Amino acid sequence: MLLIGEFYKLAFFTKIHSMRQRLTVEAYTAGILSGDRIILSRAITLTESRLKNDRALAKKVLENILPFTGKSLRIGISGVPGVGKSTFIEAFGRHVTGLGMKIAVLSIDPSSKKSGGSILADKTRMENLAHDPLAYIRPSAAGPSLGGVAKNTRETILLCEAAGYEVIIIETVGVGQSETLVRGMSDFFLLLMLAGAGDELQGIKKGIMEMADAVAINKADGMNQVLAEQAVGEYRNALHLFPKPESGVDTQVLTCSALEGTGIAALWELIRKYQETTLQNGYFDQNRRNQNLEWMHDHIRQTLEEQFYENSILKKAVKTTEKSVSEGRELPVAAAERLLEFFFKNRI
Amino acid sequence: MLLIGEFYKLAFFTKIHSMRQRLTVEAYTAGILSGDRIILSRAITLTESRLKNDRALAKKVLENILPFTGKSLRIGISGVPGVGKSTFIEAFGRHVTGLGMKIAVLSIDPSSKKSGGSILADKTRMENLAHDPLAYIRPSAAGPSLGGVAKNTRETILLCEAAGYEVIIIETVGVGQSETLVRGMSDFFLLLMLAGAGDELQGIKKGIMEMADAVAINKADGMNQVLAEQAVGEYRNALHLFPKPESGVDTQVLTCSALEGTGIAALWELIRKYQETTLQNGYFDQNRRNQNLEWMHDHIRQTLEEQFYENSILKKAVKTTEKSVSEGRELPVAAAERLLEFFFKNRI
Questions:
Q1: Are A231 and A208 part of one and the same domain?
Q2: Which of A17-26, B75-84, B262-271 has the highest mean pLDDT?
Q3: Is there a single domain that holds both residue B8 and residue B127?
Q4: What's the pLDDT band for B33 if we cut at 50, 70, 90?
Q5: Are A43 and A160 in the same domain?
Q6: Residues from chain A contacting residue B205 (CB–CB below 8 Å)
Q7: Predicted pLDDT of residue B346
Q8: What is B215-240 written as a DSSP string?
Q9: What is the CATH number of the domain that holds A180?
Q10: CATH number, position A43
Q11: Residue-by-residue DSSP string for A167-210
């Protein structure tokens, strides 16, 4: 493996300086494997492109780096705006780089499919971490749909791993389906909460808390500390009502203060312990294997649906049909079959 | 509407006695609208058939009865084996028929796709209710997949409504995805639980409790009563940690004893109150409209996936690919695209 890496590095140094827009497969590969952040960023941009040539190129790059992926610890983090996620990730990230490890911070932003940009992963949010040579912060992936964003993020994880990042944070906000996506690409899922904010205000969606491997009550500082400890008790009681996680490790609840830096080291230890236990009981690898399969089947499903729903002739018919179906004037199944028949006749 | 009903009744009485296996569209329609239980059962069997002719016939029957559907109150009920679901539904059903209303009991059994039959909806489980002239019990729908079972159950709901059933119970067991399906076709979702059984033992799946419009602690009788009251408190606290339901009505927790018949009337009142409130705030109709749309889109998605995964040439390739993908030897997206290309080239 190292020899291959060396080969790519050589190819990289001889070719990179004559390139502008797109590099060669070899140059991307070598750049990534040598940990070059600029090449890494350009490769991520390449995988996000919808142009046919770019996609073919990206596919080759991904195939090349595949043997060098999978070695990181992937940590999903969610929490609603106001929970102090940026400050937390900065403190957590600095702790990890302080231990000499490389960390990458990615994000899935449910709003990015609309804006094309991101409100979430602005580097200015985490200025200290952004300037840390061991940290790499990538703004939220863009995509035509949340599914597209997920696909891009999954590929970005692989690219970062090939570039030597040992811890990957995938963050999202506590609204919509994005948590399920993040959970589906993480080894460990952390939910950030606030004490005494009233969960309705916190806007946590149904089922999210049950996905968590750990719940951290953030901002447990000053006057808040007592409330935070109370919240820990409440969440522990509530979690007790749920079934034991598949990982075999009970969901942990703890407090932390990103501002004061308390609880961060304990949380890191907890995550390392989780990794150790699940590596031993086989869940860690099993989960990764399942996630790979899910990824493939998700992509198949998404593509099939895209072919159907993005069909320009069908779009108008779907809209009209939705009206008659929702009003109960047409049978849902009959309507679906009428549209499907049209699709299969006209698609290919 | 009544005139149409009368017309079908006439058509029915003149034709029914000369038929054997399959009836005419008119005979099915008239039989259902006149509330004939035998014709209703035969119509349900017809909609479950996968034969092309039967499906065309069923489609016409469903289209005919469509204007007479939608008037019932659809109640989903879930709870793991041992929670006393049959006894509960019997007591609840007898209470409803005691008020002079017609009730139908359907079931979605996750195991039925395998066995082709049902362990769940055996009429012998609810013997008293089965002999009640105002009650109709239909064993679990069969189908090639859980999605197929759901499709059949949705159509059975429509047929029962056209046959004049005012309350429809859709029951399922607290395992797997069947709750989500039942929730997606109910106006009200009731979760039956036991006190002190330990939720891990009760096997409630993640996210189920949060779907409930009410949680009823069953078997609150004898020595169990104190434990049941304690459980009510615990669940209320836990539910407090979740966001307010979209319906605008807080999830209720109460005790009942199907054996002693206590709590049943209160539960019925609670459900009627829920219906009243959600009819007023618009959620009831909005929910029905959304469910219709979901039904259509589910059917589209399922059909597209069936076309792909049931493709005989593709099946073997999918299996081999799953192995290389899960082991990380092939990129999930690249693998998916290879399979999709093959599908679109060979399908049509």
A1: yes
A2: B262-271
A3: no
A4: very high
A5: no
A6: 243
A7: 74
A8: EEEE---TTHHHHHHHHHHHHHHHHH
A9: 3.40.50.300
A10: 1.20.5.170
A11: EEEEEE-SSTTHHHHHHTT-SEEEEEEETTS-HHHHTPPTTSGG
Rounded to an integer, what distance in angstroms lies between the CA atom of residue B320 and that of residue B185?
37
Interacting residues of A184 by C-beta distance below 8 A, sequence separation 6+: A150, A291, A294, A295
Interface test with B, best of A303, A323, A324, A341 (most B CBs within 10 A): A303
Q: Give the gap in angstroms from C-alpha A161 to the nearest C-alpha of chain B.
A: 14
Q: Which of A80-89, B132-141, B185-194, B306-315 is predicted most confidently?
A: B185-194
- Half-sphere exposure (Cβ direction) of B217: Cα atoms closer than 13 Å: 25
Q: Quick check: A237 and B237 CB within 8 A?
A: yes
ipTM surpassing 0.85: no
Q: What is the CATH number of the domain that holds B340?
A: 1.10.287
My answer on whether B78 and B209 are in the same domain is yes
| Domain assignment present for A287 | no
Q: How many pairs of residues across A and B have Cβ atoms under 8 Å apart?
A: 178
Amino acid letter, B36 = D
Q: How many CB atoms lie within 10 A of CB A91?
A: 25
User: Is the Cβ pair A334, B308 closer than 8 Å?
Assistant: no
> Quick count: other Cβ atoms within 10 Å of Cβ A234?
17
Residue A331 to residue B200, Cβ atoms within 8 A:
no
Q: Give the total number of structural domains in chain A.
A: 3
Same domain, residue pair A189 and A317: no
Confidence of residue B168 (pLDDT cuts 50, 70, 90): very high
- If asked whether residues A115 and A227 sit together in one domain, one would say yes
pLDDT at B14 over 80: no
Comparing CA positions, the residue from A285, A283, A288, A251 lying closest to residue A270 is A251
Tell me the average pLDDT across A322-336.
91
- Region A34-48 average pLDDT: 95
B332 contacts in A (CB within 8 Å)? 154, 292-293, 295-296, 299
Same domain, yes or no: B83 and B12: no
* Among B81, B71, B77, B64, CA closest to B183: B77
Amino acid at B338: R
Question: Which of B21, B46, B67 is where one domain is finished?
Answer: B67
Q: Which of B59, B69, B293 sits opposite A325 (nearest CB)?
A: B293
A38, A150: one domain: no
- CB nearest A336 (choices: B205, B206, B299): B299
Q: Indicate if the pLDDT at residue B200 is higher than 60.
A: no
On chain A, the residues whose CB falls within 8 A of the CB of B69 are 328
Chain B nearest C-alpha distance from A164 (Å):
18
Supply the range of the domain harboring residue A336: 292-346
Query: What whole-number distance in Å separates Cα of residue A33 and Cα of residue B103?
Result: 67
For the stretch A95-104, pLDDT in tens is 999 999 999 9
Per the domain annotation, does B313 fall within a domain?
yes
Domain contains B286? no
Q: Considering the domain boundaries, does residue B135 fall inside one?
A: yes
CB contact under 8 A, A297 and B209: no
Examine the fold and report which residue of A262, A281, A300 is the final residue of a domain before the chain moves on. Answer: A281
Give percent of chain B with pLDDT exceeding 70.
84
Is there a contact between B303 and A337 if contact means CB atoms under 8 Å apart? yes
